[in-house]
Specification:
The protein has 702 residues and is an alpha+beta fold. It is 48% helix and 16% strand. It has 4 domains: 188 residues, Hypothetical protein af1432 (Orthogonal Bundle); 143 residues, Beta Polymerase, domain 2; 139 residues, no CATH class; 75 residues, ACT domain (Alpha-Beta Plaits, 2-Layer Sandwich), CATH 3.30.70.260.
């Protein structure tokens, strides 16, 4: 009997005759298209699409998904265009096939970039039709089952990608069976010896435990019968990769993991789950803190079950999962469990399907905000963390977040604008740092302020892809607007020397220069100047028709206000403050760095107009500036407290303090103090001089 006939017979149990014939037609089309092509194993190529369709048939997928499975390599490998498939099988099937096909005609610099671009393309297709990912997972599953014919390096690369991306996606979509198979096959390909050793050890352990497992199973079944509860009790096998991850992650010995006995009780309805929980807690004592109710609060992938750990006979720990038949089906097959695909979205999808849609929507949002495909794939990997914490909004709504999330992640999960304008947070009604990891059950309240901006330091502690992508996006926009503004000021300053300004330059001359630099709009040119990638002097000369030099007499210094933001920074070597004579050093990609005129680090480029620019402090300069002071004084008790209170009395603030004792009588203290300007600094120094025993105070400079 042909493979397609066996499949058709299976499909006829849940699909109509016409639909089965359409799947047959797709098979014969693929067979013709792949004629003469063979897999690495030597089999005709069409055996692969047929195997993929069989995997989807196990999940009871619809006929269009099965047709797409038959045709999924046609566009990529046989040169048949998407339009041809569209004419033959309709637009839906052609879109599914196109969504799964890789970008083969484009040249990528690295393998990682190609992978990332392909995943990005698939994510876009997934947003239109979520079946794309199910066909892709089935395709990847069959490839993983037949990995052994490939070379060692290729095998490891595919296994790594599967463990990092496809297994977590299967988990996110609630497809437990697919995830477990991905993990075990990936583990075997990545670490064949470890996998084999754990496999043998598990086999031995199961042999030794048979008797005790049967006893526990019998006592659990008895306990349900006494209470008149109908339910199936079964022992649960731990999969190899799960054991390996626990051994590595939790630093546990193999015996410790295998000493826990796992069982599953499947019943008819939700009420019965809680009755069973009461019955087993009566039979064996529960371990405190080990009960989880995923029925009331399902996991992010829609998984529902009651989990409890009991102290069983002979003191062995017993892990029990209690769930309904529907939950069991959902836990194993996730989004594919109740595949009722609706082309019209009149009825909103429920449960796992709704959560999967929500996740795909989030992935699409990440894709739109990400700078490039590699940044996007990094965000998606972060987003695929399986462990969640559940926190509450002040109004009592439950929010799911990955483990380790902070208040900033929470703010972005509520809304992008809340994240962007967040300045502080309250956790359980107390003010807390924004970087504090959230615990399940906490109530989180965000304090926001209009006009607030994301802080670059947030990128050091946020864990969700959404937060990371939106912070980067906001910082890019902020940096661009600040670069454009600084670039305009720098260019106008040089043009003033030519007795003109940007507004007075003819538009066609500006357009001609933009075309020469291959830039689209004037803002791009100003941004380049602001970031130090192009010299304002050179650009001004190109914009100026005359070849005359800029008149030095009209060259007034550029005013610094202290509010220029990300494109202007203050040199750490000489820590300039308002009132100091200063100069700006243009550094490619970083913008302008402000140094003291006397700073030794820029002495070589000090008089180069392309590298340095004369600056002055604006009258309305604002902000706090750090200064390093070296204080020599006689050693005495409570020295640090005395210095701190003196600085405080002068309205200064100590950012950092360190002390090295020179000898028994004198000490040297290094202080980093934040001040507003030189007048404020003089006030701080006067207060410190007034202390008893101060010998000398020096401002540290490069």
């Amino acid at each position: 009997m042909l493979g397609i006939d066996v499949l058709a017979e299976r499909l006829s149990t849940y699909l109509g005759k016409d639909q089965v014939n359409l799947v047959r037609r797709a098979y014969y089309y693929a067979e013709q298209a792949h004629d003469g092509q063979r897999r690495r194993s030597g089999e005709p190529y069409v055996t692969h699409p047929l195997a993929v369709a069989n995997i989807l048939a196990d999940m009871h997928m619809d006929h269009q998904s099965l047709m797409a499975a038959m045709l999924h390599d046609v566009i990529e490998d046989t040169g048949i265009a998407k339009e041809a498939l569209c004419a033959q099988f309709g637009e839906t099937v052609a879109e599914l096939v196109d969504g799964v096909s890789k970008l083969t005609q484009m040249n990528f610099e690295t393998k990682a970039e190609a992978q990332a671009e392909n995943f990005q393309k698939m994510a876009m297709a997934m947003a239109r039709d979520i079946r794309v990912i199910l066909v892709k997972l089935a395709d990847r599953l069959h490839n993983m089952r037949t990995l052994e014919v490939l070379s060692g390096e290729k095998r490891r690369r595919i296994a790594k990608e599967t463990l990092e991306i496809y297994a977590p996606i299967a988990n996110r979509l609630g497809m437990h069976n697919v995830r477990v198979e991905f993990e075990d096959l990936g583990f075997k390909a990545m670490h064949p010896m470890r996998s084999e050793r754990i496999h043998q050890a598990v086999k031995r352990a199961r042999g030794n435990r048979k008797e005790l497992v049967a006893k526990i199973e019998h006592s659990l079944a008895n306990c349900l019968a006494v209470d008149g509860i109908a339910g199936d009790v079964s022992g649960r096998q731990k999969h190899l990769y799960g054991i390996y991850k626990k051994m590595r992650g939790k630093r546990r010995a193999f015996n410790e993991i295998m000493d826990v006995y796992a069982f599953r009780i499947v019943v008819d309805k939700v009420d019965t789950c809680y009755r069973v929980l009461g019955a087993v807690h009566n039979l064996y004592k529960p371990l405190p803190g080990r009960f989880k109710d995923y029925i009331a609060i399902p996991k992010a992938n829609g998984y529902q079950s009651l989990h409890t750990t009991l102290f069983g006979m002979h003191g062995v720990p017993i892990e029990i999962q209690i769930r309904t038949r529907e939950m069991e089906e959902m836990a194993n097959n996730g989004i594919a469990a109740h595949w009722l695909y609706k082309s019209n979205d009149d009825e909103l999808p429920k449960g796992t399907h709704a959560r999967a849609r929500q996740w795909v929507k989030g992935v699409l949002e990440l894709q739109q905000r990400a700078g490039n495909s590699l940044e996007f794939i990094e965000s998606v990997k972060i987003d695929l963390f399986p462990d969640e914490v559940y926190v509450f909004t002040p109004k009592g709504k439950i929010m799911e977040l990955p483990k380790g999330s902070t208040a900033v992640d929470f703010a972005y999960a509520v809304h992008t604008d809340v994240g962007n304008s967040c300045i502080a947070c309250r956790i359980n009604r107390r003010l807390a740092p924004l970087s504090e990891p959230l615990q399940s059950g906490s109530t989180v309240e965000i304090v926001s302020a209009p006009g607030a901006r994301p802080n670059p330091a947030w990128l050091n502690f946020v864990v969700t892809g959404k937060a990371r992508t939106h912070i980067r996006h906001a910082l890019k926009l902020q940096r661009r607007s600040e670069s454009v503004s600084l670039g305009e000021r720098l260019l106008n300053k040089v043009l003033n020397g030519f007795e003109t300004s940007l507004d007075r330059i003819p538009a066609e001359r500006v357009q001609h220069l933009l075309a020469e630099y291959r830039l689209e709009v004037i803002e791009d040119l100003l941004e380049d100047i602001g970031l130090g990638n192009r010299m304002a002097y050179v650009v001004a000369r190109r914009l100026q028709a005359s070849e005359g030099e800029a008149s030095p007499s009209s060259e007034s210094p550029l005013a610094i206000r202290g509010t220029e933001g990300l494109v202007l920074s203050y040199a750490k070597c000489c820590t300039p403050i308002p009132g100091d004579p200063i100069v700006g050093h243009l550094s490619a990609g970083k913008g302008m760095v402000v140094h003291l005129e006397s700073c030794r680090n820029i002495s070589e480029v000090r008089h180069n107009p392309e590298k340095c620019i004369q600056l002055a402090w604006a009258k309305d300069v604002s902000g706090e500036f750090n200064v390093e002071l070296r204080v020599e004084l006689e050693h005495q008790r409570g020295l640090i407290a005395l210095l701190a209170s003196s600085v405080n009395a002068a309205d200064g603030n100590i950012e950092k303090i360190s002390m090295d004792e020179r000898d028994g009588r004198t000490s040297v203290v290094q202080l980093v103090v934040s001040v507003h300007d030189r007048v404020h600094l003089a006030r701080v120094i006067r207060k410190l001089r007034a202390l008893n025993g101060v010998i000398r105070i020096t401002r540290m400079r490069a």
